[in-house]
Amino acid sequence: MKKIAILTSGGDAPGMNAVIRSVVRTAIARGMEVVGVVRGYNGLINGDLIPMDARSVSDIIQRGGTMLCTARCAEFRYDEGVEKAKKTCIENGIEGLVVVGGDGSFRGAADLSAKGILAVGVPGTIDNDISMTEYTIGYDTAMNTVVEMVDKLRDTAQSHDRCSVVEVMGRNAGYIALNAGIAVGATYIITKEEPYTMNDVIQKILAGKKNGKHHFIIVVAEGIGNSEQIAKEIEQETGIEARATILGHVQRGGSPTLRDRVAASQLGHYAVELLEKGIGNRVVGFKDNQVVDYDIQEALKMKKQFEHKLYEIANEISF
Length: 319
Ligand code: ADP
What we know:
By secondary structure, the protein is of the alpha/beta class. 42% of the residues lie in helices and 18% in strands.
């Protein structure tokens, strides 16, 4: 393979830049040319390409977001869109492509691979909601941001004897809520993976109050979606002043943590090694902490386990 491209697609995640750096430098080290595609699959359809050299990825490993920008691209869901993207690749001598994103982006990568443009997916999302991998790039940074923010909320909750209801991201998954929840000492973690009733939450708070607790942190996963209502109910039923905070997009930003930079460097490197061997239609990730790769269709069918034991631990030690 003489020339490959890289694009970032779907939601941005800290560490995407570190993947771009790793892919560009690995490709150059192996004697390949690399181009960056601007704004995900849109750039592939419109031919929005930038040549990349070793220096073009200097000074980005520590930056959040993605220097190539990212986007959602409705046109790429249809065959005409994929055909246009293929045409851009052929006209520009692009034989392989690294796609950094989530499940949706991997479906696009499979469509392109089926048309002969070999594509390899790298999981980049703060939500860690990709089944084929234990870890997705951006997850650690996002969770550390949550911890930093909730620690600040705790200061004010503590000063006013309040209950702070914090909604964290995760799309439909509760992984950020669970791990960040245990790390901030949440009184209760509400996710859709673990059954709960508002009565459970209220009883836990009342039991804590009886035990001498003055302030409470309730972490709510985004998928639950009614943090204001939850705060209102807590206040009504416990008499403790409760405030809801939706952390929102702050969780996507910031300088990637060590873990995200290392994971990004490993996965980007491995993706290029696959392309170098002429292997496409794969997605790379971690299993038992080792870098592995799967067929994209197989990967999309996999199911992920929720860390139930961790949830139990969080519950048991939060009284
Ligand atoms: P993520 O990659 O984070 O899951 P999306 O689901 O928004 O994010 O997908 C990102 C992009 O991938 C979409 O805007 C679209 O261009 C492409 N995509 C998503 N689903 C498909 C599909 N079924 N077939 C082809 N391309 C798709």
